[in-house]
Amino acid sequence: MDRCIVAVVTLCMVLVMVSCHRPQKPNFIVMLMDDMGWGDLGVFGEPNKETPNLDKMAAEGMLFPDFYSANPICSPSRASLLTGRLPIRNGFYTTNTHAHDSYTPQIIMGGIPDSEILLSELLGEAGYRNKIVGKWHLGHRPQYLPLKHGFHEWFGAPNCHFGPYDDINTPNIPVYRDAEMSGRYYEQFIIDKNTGLSNLTLMYLDEGVKFIQNQTLRGQPFFLYWTPDATHDPLYVSEKFYQTSRRGRYGDAVRELDYAVGEILKTLKLLDIEKNTFVFFTSDNGAATYAKTSAGSNGPFLCGKQTTFEGGVREPAIAWWPGTIPAGQVSHQVGSTMDLYTTLLDLAGVKVPTDRPIDGISLRSTLVNNAVVQRPVFYYRGNELIAVRLGQYKTHLWTFTNPIEEFNRGVDFCPGQYIQNVTTHDQIHHDPPLLFHLGRDPGEKYFIKSHTEEYMKVLPMIQKAIDEHRKHMVPGEPQLNMCDRAVMNWAPPGCDKGDNKCLTAPPSKPHLCSWPH
Amino acid sequence: MDRCIVAVVTLCMVLVMVSCHRPQKPNFIVMLMDDMGWGDLGVFGEPNKETPNLDKMAAEGMLFPDFYSANPICSPSRASLLTGRLPIRNGFYTTNTHAHDSYTPQIIMGGIPDSEILLSELLGEAGYRNKIVGKWHLGHRPQYLPLKHGFHEWFGAPNCHFGPYDDINTPNIPVYRDAEMSGRYYEQFIIDKNTGLSNLTLMYLDEGVKFIQNQTLRGQPFFLYWTPDATHDPLYVSEKFYQTSRRGRYGDAVRELDYAVGEILKTLKLLDIEKNTFVFFTSDNGAATYAKTSAGSNGPFLCGKQTTFEGGVREPAIAWWPGTIPAGQVSHQVGSTMDLYTTLLDLAGVKVPTDRPIDGISLRSTLVNNAVVQRPVFYYRGNELIAVRLGQYKTHLWTFTNPIEEFNRGVDFCPGQYIQNVTTHDQIHHDPPLLFHLGRDPGEKYFIKSHTEEYMKVLPMIQKAIDEHRKHMVPGEPQLNMCDRAVMNWAPPGCDKGDNKCLTAPPSKPHLCSWPH
C-alpha cells in the first residue's frame, strides 16, 4: 500500500519536471510514405475517402498541393531529403546509362558519402536526439548506415522488403535495432507473402510513439524520421485493417498508415507537446503505377514513379503545428522534400551549410504567414535534367517513360495513358522544349505551341533559371554505378547474436550495375 | 420622421409573420451545374483548391463520391432528374442510330412529353412554388417550356448558349422571363465571345436569392431549380472573377459558381431558413474532355461527357441541410440524379407515381442516418444499355467512345487516355462482358479476367439485375429523332415586345436528326 503511494508521488514529480524542462527548440516529425501517390488521400480526391486522420491533419494544418519529391525514385529522393540537395549533387544517381533511374538494391556498392552533411548530423550537433523508424535506403554497407550519419536510434531496414529471398542467391533483408540487426524480414519479422499480413506498421507506430514519449520525459528535443513502407509492393497490413478497405490490399495499407498518423498526432496532444512539434507528412515518390491494382493513385496527374511527369514526383504533403501553423490553410507554394532540410534547420536555429549549394529553401514564412515565393523545380532522371517547373509552367527538355523492350514485357509506367510525343519510350530531346501550364492542364496533355505569345514570353524565363542552375552545377561522385553480390546483407552487424545468422558472402565481383530504365 | 417609425413597425410585423408561418414542408434547392466534372471541386481533389464554398458546404453536409447523372449528356440527364426516370423511359433518346447520344439543339422537334409527371408538377400540387433559374433543355417549342410543366417562374434559356448565331441560319437563343422571352443571348444578354465576360451567373444568383427571399416572406415552401451554365463551352465569367483562377477561364467560371453557391447558402442562414431547406449540388454530366483546356476535370476517372465511362457520369455531389444532415459526412451510397425526384417527393410527403416505373430511390435514410442500400446503376447511351454498376463492380456490355472518323477530325472524348479493348471507336459488344472493380481500379483500366473466381461470383449477380431491369423495360416514344429548322427559336412568345424581335422561320422540312456519336 505504501509503495503505491510512493509511485503516485513519483509520477507527479516526473510530470512537473516535464513541464519545467519543456525544450525551447521545436521537435520534428517527418513522416515519409513509400510509393504513396498524390491522389491517395481523401483530401486530394481519392474517391473512397479512407484517410480520415490525414484529412483531419490537413484541416488542422496546411495542405500543399504543389509539393514535390526531389526525384521520382526512392533512394535518390530519400538522400535528397536528408541532404537538402539534388541527387546529382549528393551522388545518388548513375552514369552507367543516360537518364536512367537507379537506387540501392542489395547489390549496390555505394551509399551516402561521408562528405554529405545530413539533417540528422546538424540537428544532433544542435542537441536533438534523432531516430529513424522504417526504411533507410541510403546504402546498407556498414559505413552508410543511419547511426554513422547522425541518427542516434534506428528501428527498420536498410533496403526494400521485396524478394525473392532464398539466403543462397539473395539474403533476406535485415531489420536493425540501432547499430545491429535484430532479425530479418520473412524470418523474425513476418510478412505473409500470400495474404500480406504483417505487424510491421504497428511496430513502426509503437517505435515512434515510444520515442516521442521517452524524449518528452527526457525534455530533449527530437527529430523522428518515420518512414514506414507498407504501401511499397509487396503491400502489407495487420489483422486489424486486413480487407477493410474499399480499395483492396493497397487501401488496407493506406488505412493502417492513416490510423498510425492519427495515433502519433494523438500522442503529441496527450503529452501536451503538439504546440512544440512540427509534423510534416509526405511521400518519397509518386505511386508505382506499373504495379497496376497494387499501386496507389496519382490523381489527375500523368504517369507515376520513375518518371518526371507530375505523377512521378507530385506528392501528398501536409504540415501540422497547432498554434504556429493556422488551421485549414492551403498553400500553393511550390515545395520540395529538400525544403524539409532547410526548414527544419531554420526552425531549430541551425545554420545551413554555406560551403556547398543547397537546393532546399526554408518554408518558415509559408508555414507561418502563408507566404509564397517563386522558385524553380528541377526534375532530374539519373544524370539528366529532364524538366523544369517555374510558376505554373513546366517545360520538358526531354521526354522518356521506359524503353519499348521493357514496355513490351508488360512494364508500363503510364497505364491507360498515352500522349503523343510526351509519353515516349525513346529518350526524346525537345528543342524547342515542350511547355505545359499545370493549372489549366495538370495532366500534361496539351503542350503550348512554340509560336504563341505565351510560349515566347514564358520560355526565356525558364531558360534563364536553367542557365543559372547549370552554371553552378558540379555533379557529385555517382554512388549508384557499381554493384557486387558480395556486398549484400550476408552478415550484417549483430548477425552472430540471438536467433540471427551470419551467411557467407560469395567472392567479390564488382561490376557496373544494370539499370533497365 | 413619423413615416420612418411606421416603416420600422411594419417590418417588425412582417418578421413576426414569417416566424409564425414557417412552412412545415421543407424548401428544396437543386443546384445543377453544366459539364462540371467530378474532379472540379477542391474536396474531390482539384489541385488548385479553388472552391472554398463548396468545400465548406461538404464539411457542413454530406459528400457523395459515388453519385451519378442518369445520362452522360445534358438534355437526357436533365429530363431524368425532373422525371425520376431513365431517358429510355421518358423519351430523351434517339433510335436514328444505335447507342448514339442526342440532345435538344434548336432544330429538335421533340421535348418533354405531357405524359411525363415532373417533379415540379407534383410539388406544385403539394403547395410548392417552383422556379427554374438557368438552362431548361427539355425542349424549346412552346408546349415543352417550364411553365407548361409545373414551374411557376423561370429566368433562363431553353437551349445551350453556343453559336454560331447569325439570325439568318440560326437565331440567337432567347432568355425567358417566365412564359415570355426577355431578350436573346449576345443581344440583350451579353456574353463577350472573345473575353468570355458576362454577368449571367450573377444574374442567375440574383434571381435565385430574390426568389428565396420572396418565398420566405410569403411563407410558402419553394423548389428552386438552379441551373447556371457558365462551365459549358463557351465559358463565361463576370469581371469580378475574370482571370482570377489558376486554371484559366474554366476555373474563373468555377470560382464564380462557387461564390454564388456560397451566397445562396448565406442567404438561407440570414433568413434563418437553413434548417428547413434541403440543398443538393451536382452536375448534369461529366466534364466535356473533348474541349481540352476549356473543359473541367473528371479526376482519376476515364474519359468524359458523352461516354458511359466513369468520367462521363460520375458527378460531384453534396447534400446540405443543417440540423437534419449531420455535418462532415461522406456517403458511399450509390446515388443518381434521378434520386432527387424520389427524395424530394419523400421529404415533401408527396406520393411517388405508381402507374409507371420510377428509377430513382429515396435517399432520406442515407441523408439522415448515413444508411447505404445496394442498388444497380444502368448506364445507357441512346437506346442501348452499355454498362451496369452493382456494389463496387461495373460491367461493360458494350464499349464505345466515338467513331474513328470523328476522332480523326480531332474530337477526342478521352484525351491522353487509351485502354485497349475499352476506349474503342467501334461499338464493341462484349460477351462475356468486361468487369471492373471501381474501388481498386477507379480508372477502369484493369478488367477482371472472366475465368477468375471473382468474375464468376460477381457476374451472375449483375446479370440478374440486368435481366430484372430488361423484363420491365418499356421504352418511351423517342423524342430526339426528328429535326426541323422551322422549329428553331425564330419567334418565341414575347418576341413582339420591348427590344425583342420576331424572326421569320423557314419552311418546315422535318427530317431525321443526325447524331454523329
TrEMBL record, chains A, B:
Its EC number is 3.1.6.4. GO terms for cellular component: lysosome. Its main location: other. SUPFAM superfamilies: Alkaline phosphatase-like. It comes from the Eukaryota. Residues 1-20 form the signal peptide. It is found in: Lysosome. PROSITE patterns: PROKAR_LIPOPROTEIN (PS51257), SULFATASE_1 (PS00523). Keywords: Calcium, Disulfide bond, Glycoprotein, Hydrolase, Lysosome, Metal-binding, Signal. It catalyses: Hydrolysis of the 6-sulfate groups of the N-acetyl-D-galactosamine 6-sulfate units of chondroitin sulfate and of the D-galactose 6-sulfate units of keratan sulfate. Belongs to the sulfatase family. PANTHER family: ARYLSULFATASE FAMILY MEMBER, N-ACETYLGALACTOSAMINE-6-SULFATASE. Homodimer. This is N-acetylgalactosamine-6-sulfatase. It comes from Mizuhopecten yessoensis. The lineage of its organism: Eukaryota, Metazoa, Spiralia, Lophotrochozoa, Mollusca.
